[in-house]
Amino acid sequence: MGKSLTWKILESHLAAGKLAAGQEIGIRIDQTLTQDATGTMAYLQFEAMGIPRVRTELSVSYVDHNMLQEGFENADDHRYLAAVAQKHGVYFSRAGNGICHQVHLERFGVPGKTLLGSDSHTPTNGGIGMLAIGAGGLDVAVAMGGGPFYLACPQVVLVRLSGQLRRWVSAKDVILKVLQILTTKGNVGKVLEYGGPGVATLSVPERSTITNMGAEVGVTTSIFPSDERTRQFMAAQGRGGDWTPLAADDDAAYERVIEIDLSTLEPMIARPHSPDNVATVASCAGTKVQQVAIGSCTNSSYKDLVTVARLLHGRVTAADTSLVVAPGSRQVFEMIARDGYLTDLIGAGARVVESACGFCIGAGQAPPSGGVSVRTNNRNFEGRSGTRDAQVYLASPETAAACAITGTITDPRELEKLGIQFPSVDVPGKFLVDDRMILPPADHPDLIEVVRGPNIGPPPASEPPPDRLLGEVMIKVGDKITTDHISPAGSRLKFRSNVAKYATFVFEILDPTFPKRCEANRDRGRANFIVAADSYGQGSSREHAALCPMYLGVRAVLAKSIERIHHANLINFGILPLTFTDPADYDRIQPGDELELTDLHRQIESAQTLTIRNATRGASIQAALKLSSRQRKILLSGGLLNYTRSSAPHLTEAGA
Ligand code: MIC
Ligand code: SF4
After folding, report:
1. Per-residue pLDDT tens for 372-384?
2. What are the angstrom distances between the C-alpha of 184 and each of 157, 296, 453, 494, 535?
3. Phi, psi at 536, each rounded to 5°
4. Is 37's C-beta closer than 6 angstroms to any atom of ligand 2?
5. What pLDDT does residue 258 have?
6. From 124, 376, 540, mutation site for ligand 1 pocket: most ligand atoms within 8 A of C-beta
7. Which residues are designated catalytic?
């Protein structure tokens, strides 16, 4: 039986465990990336590990999230990140150079290599044939130190593409179709591997739009083969020498095969407030649109922006519709300027902003109250745009441009009726390459002084768990609670380096009293518990969604199911990730209930299920503790940092 592409890369990087779906394995990480909103904490943790220089083939630190610089906090973070990168052997992509995933694809991605990034959209680089995985900052810090990255060996699903996209239908519509089929729930522990004859019809940036939003599906990663199109893209980036061909064996085995005929797809749109609330654009046509936002790591390539510019050429956006455009990278920005397309965007009244995450993370450009915003990014979670009651839709650049022109949700195919021709845009044969905004590590690291501004605090220490936990359910939440619900971004983002402050916003959108109540309970020596339904911790990789609850004295999350990255982050910060063995028990537990867990050390060490006594209701609940022996040790040490410190010789070995 042949091997999938995923399997081949896992096999060549296997550092611990056996390749069998569901088993924990450790893999060697070739490259890492961080961004500033998760990076500051990751490098503080890396510094705390006491390793002088990264032991990866390549590590890059990007600045793209926290760019507003309202107050000193963002700039202090950037300064810290620049210095710490130079000191420890990390390349530093300066503010202004673009969004991490886009720049990494352009300048660093290499087929067949592994990439671990402290951002959930790291799988964007799966479009170039990398096994690219998102993780919490602490996992990335350990990988920078040369430690393997541990994950559940995935089940591989083949998405077999046939046919060719029709005019006005693009890569975003493919991934929205995948989201419609698989939804955002229940895909933990899987990899989406794309194959079939349709692959060759898609360019690398198009493939990356598709792998990018695998994050919303909740899979470990998504990957495309490396073929002639990959070679062309890399050659156009002046990196043809890094190219290698890669493909699955013809007789590779897959857990499941999903067939998509590209030629049957239509323009799709995700309606509020979940990326899987997908419908055809035509079925939403006519809804008034107050804002259109084009950019983000999903759709901000040269092709995307040139397509939009050509559609807007000579027109002005609809009178009631504001258009914002954020080019994905300095390369894209400079090229659309050089080629004249920026003129079309400016002429159309687009508010062109810097190459950064911007509106996607709610950093500016909040829509009006109750307003409809059509965006090309990947997440439309409630409140993420910065406006609590905004209605955010996700669509392709073609659809977004059509909405900007007409002021209503419009199927882009309708543009032909307005005399607008489909712009057929190719990936350029040669990109503009200028890496001067990427600073290499310092030749004399000893001379680099690392300055930490007043907002940059050391990561709070986590404690080993006591043998008995007694405390209250501080919040009970429903399905699909995202990390944006737990640790909001937007205007709160600037406190990422100050855990005590950032913790005051935990669950702000659901229950702003949560942090204060938790602190009071914690200070009385009692434990805090979170109860949740399915898919708890969807979305971002931000470890703050575990770190801040830990700081507030949360000791366990009891849920119907927990998403992969968040599950790992909870363990990394010493919080017990428990799942109901009988999901009906979710209804038998209420906020304020007093829970007791006894004989905890022994149970963490070896139990598969653990009994929780609900003292308020005089009942017992069974919870599963699905953990590897390594994860059990981490929990008993009170978190990954403590565990890594005590197992440093192993790290040294791995890096040797
Ligand atoms: C996001 O899209 O939510 C982010 C901001 O990029 C996060 C990382 C973060 O919270 O800093 C992600 O996707 O992991
Ligand atoms: Fe940035 Fe948005 Fe991409 Fe996250 S999803 S990395 S915030 S552009």
Report:
1. 999 999 999 999 9
2. 15, 20, 39, 28, 8
3. -65, 135
4. no
5. 98
6. 540
7. 64-65, 119, 379, 540, 542
